[in-house]
Design goal:
- The structure is a single chain.
- By secondary structure, this protein is of the alpha+beta class.
- It is 36% helix and 38% strand.
- It has 4 helices and 4 strands.
- Strands 1-4-3-2 form a 4-stranded antiparallel beta sheet.
- Strand 3 and strand 4 form a beta hairpin.
- The longest helix has 21 residues.
- The protein is elongated and about 60 Å long.
- The protein starts with 5 loop residues before the first helix and ends with a helix.
- 19% of the residues are buried.
- The N terminus is likely disordered.
């Protein structure tokens, strides 16, 4: 009988493999600090999006990636709402060279997690009594390329200083 574990098959064949072990919400919160008065405000809302991610290697070839998505909406100088989700996943990565491993953890993993975080944020905002809000797709490959370019420029500047 064939082994159905992709990680074991990839490791045996010397190929790089990635498996999604688990996807889950690690933490979420929604605040409306100025309710109910904020619902009477007529000014144009200003929305700010912040993304961050944390990677931890907690077992051999197993990585937890936590994507934190924070949406802050202000009306004038008052906070209308603050929505935050820490969407997490456990990913099995076997046989990746170090550079490729970092790229997969910084691009593929958050790309996998983002739709779940986006849905959770949208639902919290709607349930909080605010109009529907949809976060736009994010190109994590482009973000990674930009961060890599900045790091390279920073190291080049430090070497010439």
């Amino acid at each position: 009988m064939a082994d159905t574990n992709p990680a074991a098959n990839g490791a045996a064949a010397g190929e790089a493999t990635l498996t999604i072990q688990k996807l889950y919400v690690k933490d979420s919160s929604f605040e409306v600090p100025n309710a109910p008065q904020i619902f009477q405000e007529q000014a144009q809302p200003q929305v700010q999006l912040n993304l961050s991610q944390k990677v931890s290697n907690f077992a051999e070839n197993l990585y937890e990636v936590v994507l934190t998505v924070t949406v802050t909406c202000k009306v004038g100088d008052k906070t209308a709402y603050l929505a935050e989700v820490q969407q997490a996943g456990v990913f099995g990565l076997v046989g990746f060279p170090a550079n490729d491993l970092q790229q997969v953890l910084a691009t593929y993993c958050p790309h996998t997690l983002y739709p779940y975080a986006r849905q959770a944020i949208s639902q919290m905002i709607l349930d909080g009594g605010f109009p529907p809000f949809n976060l736009q797709p994010i190109n994590f490959e482009q973000l990674y390329a930009e961060q890599s370019r900045r790091r390279a420029e920073g190291q080049g500047a430090a070497a010439t200083a």
